[in-house]
From TrEMBL:
Residues in HTH tetR-type domain copies: 16-76
Entry-linked InterPro entries: Homeodomain-like_sf, HTH-type_TetR-like_transc_reg, HTH_TetR, Tet_transcr_reg_TetR-rel_C_sf, TetR_C
DNA-binding region: 39-58
Swiss-Prot/TrEMBL keywords: DNA-binding, Transcription, Transcription regulation
Pfam families: TetR_C_11, TetR_N
Keyword Phosphoprotein: no
Tagged with keyword Transcription: yes
Gene3D superfamilies, alphabetized: Homeodomain-like (1.10.10.60), Tetracycline Repressor, domain 2 (1.10.357.10)
Organism: Plantactinospora endophytica
Protein name per UniProt: TetR family transcriptional regulator
Length: 218
């Protein structure tokens, strides 16, 4: 006779199908009513499960919403084409597009709920702020290694300035950030920190053939 499995002290393993249903339902409720009006009861109803089942997985509403937003943002990575101007514009646009899928009335009240609890605030930052900043850091470091950016540039300040393109308008919800906005901001910054900005423009054009990648290049 085969031995009878003994349940672990932690109870039954979590059902990944329920996990996914709960996160999908959370995103659907967020899209419909925003963060403030989101209730765990409604998420449970849409997911076809119960409030206790959700609370066994997520200790509170902020953690539930952060887990759902992590799914929405996914594992997007910045491009690496060898063209600094193209990489920064296209890479930042990737994250701007992802954040545009989050209602403008979600991030600010979510941050307010997380701000006073250190662990929650850290989770908020690592879920929403760290991935875009890390992607921008990769692009900036590659550009510096190629000699496209000045070696004396304040790296952290550059990361803050470029990261703000993704987060500022998404957090406060006062305006959308379009591709042209990203382009203008990247160009304005690179004019100050590039070793040879006209050379970067010329390189981006060569990468795209005869047509300029970015129409507003001089």
């Amino acid at each position: 006779m085969e031995p009878v499995p003994v349940p672990s002290r932690g109870g039954r393993p979590r059902d990944p199908q329920i996990d996914r249903a709960v996160l999908d339902a959370t995103l659907a409720v967020l899209d419909d009513v925003g963060y403030v009006a989101l209730t765990v009861e409604e998420v449970a109803r849409r997911a076809g499960t119960t409030k206790p089942a959700i609370y066994r997985r997520f200790a509170n509403r902020p953690r539930l919403v952060l887990a759902a937003l992590a799914v929405r943002l996914g594992t997007a990575r910045a491009p690496d084409t060898g063209c600094t101007l193209c990489d920064l514009h296209e890479g930042i646009t990737i994250f701007v597009t992802l954040f545009d899928r989050i209602r403008p009335d979600v991030l600010a009240p979510l941050l307010a709920d997380c701000a006073s609890v250190t662990a929650l605030r850290e989770t908020f930052m690592t879920t929403l702020f760290t991935p875009p900043r890390a992607a921008v850091a990769e692009m900036v470091d590659r550009a510096t290694a190629r000699g496209d950016l000045r070696a004396d540039v304040d790296r952290e300040l550059v990361l803050d300035m470029l990261g703000a393109l993704v987060h500022y308008r998404a957090l406060f919800g006062h305006a959308a950030t379009g591709s042209a906005d990203v382009e203008r901001a990247v160009e304005a910054l690179l004019r100050g920190v590039a070793t040879d900005y006209p050379a970067l423009v010329a390189h981006s054009r060569r990468m795209a053939g005869t047509a300029p990648t970015h129409p507003s290049h001089p």
